[in-house]
């Protein structure tokens, strides 16, 4: 099992991942709060629902508080990936069923970390108000990251991981920095 050490944002990767057909640059999509600092390529690749979740998490962060948002970038690829070796859960009968199953699994796994409760959850795929960055890292590396499944996802050669984690760190009341952690879901 890969154990991640608590990190400062500078150790995150913000590599551009192709999501232009779904990105929040479309007309009428929500805008990322100006209180969230991130690479321009990350900002332009966020899906509309993800942007809403990130904005909600940012509002509750204080200095050094971690926040996590999981973006399902391709429900079809996620559905396929749930059928791969090492998958922590069964593939649903449909793309939507697989998405719902994955979202429920994220919540159930996060709640296995001591001190994490439903109060930490913001919406379907976002968490904040952790007691420490160590608690957030335990969710990531101790619960969500399944190394054998990540290897299968990487071998599949998707253009981008079917889901990605956005790691946020508070820089003051309602302000934060944000990056991606690609090693969690491929």
Explain the overall architecture:
The chain has 186 residues and is of the alpha+beta class. Helices cover 34% and strands 15% of the residues. It has six helices and five strands. The protein has helices at 40-45, 48-60, 75-81, 95-110, 133-144, 147-156; strands at 36-37, 66-72, 126-127, 163-172, 175-181. Strands 1-5-4-2-3 form a five-stranded mixed beta sheet, with helices on one face. Strand 4 and strand 5 form a beta hairpin. Helix 3 (75-81) crosses helix 4 (95-110). The chain is globular and about 40 Å long.
How would the blueprint of this fold be written?
Layout: E1 36-37, H1 40-45, H2 48-60, E2 66-72, H3 75-81, H4 95-110, E3 126-127, H5 133-144, H6 147-156, E4 163-172, E5 175-181
Parallel strand pairs: 1-5
Antiparallel strand pairs: 2-3, 2-4, 4-5
Helix pairs in contact: 3-4
H/E series, N to C? Answer: EHHEHHEHHEE
What percent of the residues sit in helical stretches (DSSP H or I)?
25-40%
Instruction: Work out the number of β strands.
Output: 5
Structural class by SSE content = alpha+beta
Q: Write down the overall geometry.
A: globular
What is the radius of gyration?
A: 15 Å
| Number of H- or I-type helical stretches | 6
Strand order of the largest sheet: 1-5-4-2-3
Q: Describe the largest sheet.
A: 5 strands, mixed
How far the N terminus sits from the C terminus, by CA atoms, comes to: 15 Å
Q: Report strand %.
A: 15-25%
Task: Indicate the mean pLDDT.
Answer: 87
Low-confidence residue ranges: 1-11, 13-25
């Amino acid at each position: 099992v890969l154990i991640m050490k608590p990190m400062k944002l500078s150790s995150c990767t913000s590599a551009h991942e192709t999501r232009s057909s779904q990105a929040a640059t479309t007309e009428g999509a929500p805008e990322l709060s100006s209180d969230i600092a991130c690479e321009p390529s990350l900002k332009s690749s966020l899906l509309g629902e993800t942007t809403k979740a990130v904005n909600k998490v940012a509002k509750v962060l204080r200095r050094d508080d971690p926040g996590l948002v999981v973006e399902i970038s391709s429900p079809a690829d996620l559905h396929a990936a749930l059928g791969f070796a090492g998958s922590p859960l069964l593939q649903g009968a449909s793309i939507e069923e697989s998405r719902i199953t994955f979202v429920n699994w994220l919540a159930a796994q996060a709640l296995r970390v001591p001190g994490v409760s439903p109060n930490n959850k913001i919406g379907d795929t976002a968490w904040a108000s952790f007691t420490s960055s160590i608690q957030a890292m335990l969710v990531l590396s101790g619960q969500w990251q399944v190394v054998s499944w990540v290897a299968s996802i990487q071998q599949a050669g998707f253009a981008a991981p079917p889901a990605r984690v956005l790691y946020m760190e508070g820089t003051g009341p309602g302000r934060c920095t944000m990056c991606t952690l690609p090693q969690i879901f491929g």
